[in-house]
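User: Last request for today: this protein with flavin-adenine dinucleotide, please.
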Amino acid sequence: MKSAVSIIGGGLAGCEAAWQLLQRGHAVQLFEMKPQRFSPAHKMEYLAELVCSNSLKSNHADSAPGMLKQELRTLDSLIMSAADQTAVAAGSALAVDRTEFARTVQDKLLQQKNFKLIRQEVTKIPRDVITIIATGPLTSDRFARAISEMLGGSYLYFYDAIAPIVNADSINMGKVYVASRYGKGTPDYLNCPLTENDYETFLHELLAGAKVPARHFEEMKHFEGCLPIEVLAARGHDTLAFGPMKPVGLIDPHTGTLPYAVVQLRRENSAGTLYNMVGFQTRLTWPEQKRIFRLIPGLENAEFARLGSIHRNTYIHSPSLLAPSLQLKTNPNIFFAGQITGVEGYLESTAMGLFAGLCTASILEQKAIHPPPASTAIGALVSYITADESRQNFQPMNINFGILEKLSAKRMKKKEKHFEYARKASEALKNWMHEQNLQT
Ligand SMILES: Cc1cc2nc3c(=O)[nH]c(=O)nc-3n(C[C@H](O)[C@H](O)[C@H](O)COP(=O)(O)OP(=O)(O)OC[C@H]3O[C@@H](n4cnc5c(N)ncnc54)[C@H](O)[C@@H]3O)c2cc1C
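Assistant: Here's the final one, the structure of the complex with flavin-adenine dinucleotide:
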């Protein structure tokens, strides 16, 4: 394996980058620190672990996350094919059985003859070997220090919070009801209905409840798309009732009326034994989570398979550090991939792994490569993280229509516009693949 590409980190991005290289006949050695060392959120020995929600968001081709999925499928993504194979019912979203998903990814890689898995924490930046760094938002401390030394301190921290998981058999099925918001897709969510009185009590306790204090060396910065429930609640009396607890389209069949607010529970595994509290990522202490979440109708006796918690997110200032090929400008032997590049989300991280894999293969084959146009979801993400190196306030980003190349000025209704984005992206990706001699 003398000329093998080294990939550090066997998460979503690292596994996807490995797959793309292997499919093009290149050898890969993948370093993964588990089970020798686990981050605060990783629990399984398998590669490609989903550390929080088991949902990969919307599967609709005319939504931004749906477009990204379609592009990954077109580019033969290992992560997408494993997700499609291990999907569980989740309405119009794509959710997976996390154990089956991770096992499938790992098995597929281990079946490749040019693949070597080395279970070891990497603590130094390799020299003179083509390397992809994909150690994720919870990069080990020692390796984070090595990255910091290499980059001159240009990396940042902020927090993410994870939502609790409830054992299905502890949910009061006489109170909750099955329905999907807006009646879209199949009704796979359980809904806990709250009266105005229940809401007032819950809100009061949530705001007053004890929170885990931030550690002194970490700067408190939340990503807007993953705010703790108590941070949202503190923004105003009705913020939750119009946000994650909005009851729109969820009539309670027990009463025939719309509740004042709802807490939605999404299936966590294919067996249906676990449910995730949607949008309930939190910094409440564990005893307070149990006390306060049991005030929710239907969860009076809830047993929690996992409680919410807070975590660090490590990412680099990609606009100043990375070329559009995701290579370090100061050392072209080093590529970055995944969430550490400043994207946010499972499939966004996967996409940056896929593109890093393609770029590395092109460099090895001495071929030029440029990113897909910003009218595609993948191109828009690459452009978001690598354009405008002088950007001061660089924040992680998930895929959304706002970062895609704007459509022509023609006035269109919202739905029509979304279809047009999807149509343009699909056409642009095919043209780009043709130019790059990638097979469709
Ligand atoms: C707590 C938390 C919850 C999140 N929840 C969601 C969510 O619900 N939905 C969503 O879309 N996104 C979520 N994210 C964001 C993010 O998309 C995921 O973390 C995603 O898994 C990132 O993919 P990755 O491949 O970049 O990193 P990871 O999937 O984390 O993979 C990195 C791998 O590198 C390994 N590693 C780390 N350091 C070393 C080292 N020095 N040597 C060797 N191996 C190492 C780790 O063990 C890990 O396996 C969450 C992030 C966090 C931190």
